[in-house]
Amino acid sequence: MNAPCVRVARERGETTRERLADAGLLDGDRRIEVEDGRIYVPVVDPDAVPSELPVVDRATGERDRQTTPADLLDEEPTYERLGDVVVIDEDDPSRAREVADAVVDSDVPCQAVVDRASKVQGEYRVREWTLLAGEETETVHREYGHEFLVDPTTVYFSPRLATERHRVIEQVQPDERLLDMFAGVGPFAVPAASRDAEVVAVDANPAAVPFLRENARRNAVADRVTAVEADVRTLADGDGGYRGWADRLIANLPHSADEFLDTAVALAGDDCVLHYYDIQHEDDPFGPGERAIRAAAGDEYDVSVETEHVVRSYAPHELNVCLDVRLTRREPAQGELSDPGE
Questions:
Q1: Which residues make Cβ contacts (< 8 Å) with residue 240, sequence separation at least 6?
Q2: Burial of 97: CB neighbours in 10 Å, binned 0-12, 13-18, 19+
Q3: 327 bridge partner residues
Q4: Taking the model in full, what pTM does it have?
Q5: Inter-residue contact 60 to 30 (CB < 8 Å)
Q6: Which pLDDT score, from 0 to 100, does residue 139 have?
Q7: Per residue, what are the HEC states of 73-116?
Q8: Which of 47, 98, 183, 307 makes a 20 to 30 Å CA pair with 134?
């Protein structure tokens, strides 16, 4: 029997399946098929599929029905998978236990269930967690053909941002010098290096950097990733070695990236793209970030906003956004020394 299917390269299969499932478009009654390096994911409404995903008609078999958490609860619980760790977000402890038990008793691959017990907080952007099932929270997450060893209880990682990361990585050119200011376990840095960029990946969390180095190794890009455990501001100090170095900067610290804009400007080369992440009210989601960037750039750089992009809704009336901004160093005025020390 033919059915509408999204067709993507096999390495993008899991990310695409999760995206379609999150949008309620996955046809759970049909089998996902693989042929000639491509994966075919059946969908229930081809007209609702995002335009960048190709839809084709293809013969697919009926799916062997597996038990889902919804089957056991008689309702659809909200959860996400990070590798074989299932993450839930329940305020009621008894409800959290009920959902965790249903996940464990279902056919969902699962080595542990954790419940978010706080918002992202602190210098290292981590949460408090409640372990509801299992013991091992270190897992391997696969995304757009790369794999990342990660432990969500000790480092920040959001699988929901996979599409956004891919959007940025698609812009990276070979031989670029890319500096990831808040690199975590490497979900930007590793794919960028796989596109032959030279990458410096910085994080202050001592738990994140070993994962970052391991992920560079397991994705065969360790020779192109320099992992640095530090506050990124130290790289822009007089002896930090990276002033004026970067062709591309990633500043993914939405709640406080504005505090690091002077550092970003100091790290930027003569022609540099800055991917600046922010969380702002829906009435003016991009204005505060643009004004802050222009203030930090001062007279040293021309600032051109190339893309204003909404990543996702963050909270009621608040949006997580990204500004893709080009910083172009201005030529010194006639008679002006380019280096005050000259």
A1: 234
A2: middle
A3: 272, 303
A4: 0.79
A5: yes
A6: 96
A7: HCCCCCEEEECCEEEECCCCHHHHHHHHHHHHHCCCCCCEEEEE
A8: 183
